[in-house]
Amino acid sequence: MSDKNTDWQPPNDNFNVREERAPWGRYFVYMLLLGAVAAGGIWLASQVVVTDKIPDQARIDLPAETPSEAPPMGADEAAWVLALEKDTLDGYREYLAEFPEGRFAAKAQEQIDIYDNRAWATAEQRNTIAGYEDYLTDWEDGLHADKARERVAEMKAAIDAAERDAAERAARERADWTQAARDNTVASYQTYLDQHPTGVNAGEARSRIATMRASTADTAAWNAAKAANQADAYQQYLTSFPQGAFVAQAMAAIEQLRPSVGKIFSDCDACPSMTVLPSGNDTLGALDTDETARANEKPARPVTIGTPFAIGVREVTFAEYDACIAAGGCSTRPDDKGWGRGTRPVINVSFADAQAYASWLSSSTGHTYSLPTEAQWEYAARAGANDLYPGGSLSALCAFANGASKETPVAWANADCTDPGVGRTLPVGTLSANAFKLRDMVGNVAEWTLDCNTLNLRDAPVDGSADARGSCGQRAVRGGSWFSGPDDLRYSARMMLRRGDRNDFTGFRVIRKIAG
């Protein structure tokens, strides 16, 4: 029998049948097992937790194995969950108030402490009493309450100390200011400023120092101006100190030294009234057309008065001259011839007497007085007129000149005039004034001048100064008198008298220099 007999069959026919049947049962079992594994994987995946996204409390409190259905939460846990959901100071405080010994009390306190520390950080950042007191209002028993109270106490103590120190400083300053004001000197105010540079009265102290220093300079400038006693010096003071303490005095001094043109003034109670004449040009002396002119009145020449000068508004009176006698400035008491003194023009005075009076005025007033030159006299008498005599006619002359009139028994009398004085002087200023407001420039009394006797006016000064040529033992008198007829009442008429002559028809008027 051969071992390779292919016709051999196993004795069990059923076995062969099972081997040839399709394996569906096994497939089904495999599918069930695979589904179970997949379901388990899915379930495990659903249990995986990302730990960094879950609060610590949640991670700690979750059980190791979460059942498919969580058991109901207790009141403590529910309250904690609610606190977490609110996540506020009040929420955590409410939890602690309800569960002071609760499971999550420590956690709640940790959260509360976080708010406490934040409030303290804010208070420290403000670093004020109000800031720390605000902290204590919200955290009376907070972590930093004691420190907050210490800070408040320290700050209040510092404020109290500062206030006491300020009060002491204020008291010292008041005392120092009172002393400085009492002394009222630059040094006293400077001492105050050195001690209190920003004090309440510092501005006033500086102002007073400035005022005093300005006053010192002001006074020094004023004293310098007074020492110079010149109009220009006073004007310089006004320019330097337009608001100075002596402005009024400086202006008055200028007005005295350099009165304005046309102003009438008097330098003292007993001094004659003066007026300022302007500078100008005029033709002085007799014109060729004047048939009554004498040789010593010619030739007429143009004269320039370069600077203003003041001249007496009226002739010097007895009253004014007697004041000079009383003061010791004049030595001779002139006779009034029984006509009266007072406001009548002084008579019976020599050239030297008139000079003495002018010198007394100068020494008494500080201004320069003198007799006028012939040019100054004629310039003042004409006042711009080019007629022969005031008024331009014999009849008009009567209003200006007290001369010989028809009542006077002399051949040269002016028959057109009636003499109110009847052969004597009139009180000064009785008749009309000329255009310069001057009275009695002609008539009443003849007036001494500074000029010497000359035969004519050829080569006479043309600048208004006195003519020192010729015979100076004689001096020119101008204007005629109560005894003069029309020929001697002309503007250009000249008469010569010896220096020592005294008579009842000659007086004088003065001029005053106007300071530069």
UniProtKB/TrEMBL annotation:
<dbReference type="InterPro" id="IPR042095">
    <property type="entry name" value="SUMF_sf"/>
</dbReference>
<dbReference type="Pfam" id="PF03781">
    <property type="entry name" value="FGE-sulfatase"/>
</dbReference>
<feature type="domain" description="Sulfatase-modifying factor enzyme-like">
    <location>
        <begin position="271"/>
        <end position="512"/>
    </location>
</feature>
<keyword id="KW-1133">Transmembrane helix</keyword>
<dbReference type="InterPro" id="IPR016187">
    <property type="entry name" value="CTDL_fold"/>
</dbReference>
<dbReference type="InterPro" id="IPR051043">
    <property type="entry name" value="Sulfatase_Mod_Factor_Kinase"/>
</dbReference>
<feature type="transmembrane region" description="Helical">
    <location>
        <begin position="27"/>
        <end position="45"/>
    </location>
</feature>
<dbReference type="InterPro" id="IPR005532">
    <property type="entry name" value="SUMF_dom"/>
</dbReference>
<protein>
    <recommendedName>
        <fullName>Sulfatase-modifying factor enzyme-like domain-containing protein</fullName>
    </recommendedName>
</protein>
<keyword id="KW-0812">Transmembrane</keyword>
<keyword id="KW-0472">Membrane</keyword>
<dbReference type="InterPro" id="IPR011990">
    <property type="entry name" value="TPR-like_helical_dom_sf"/>
</dbReference>
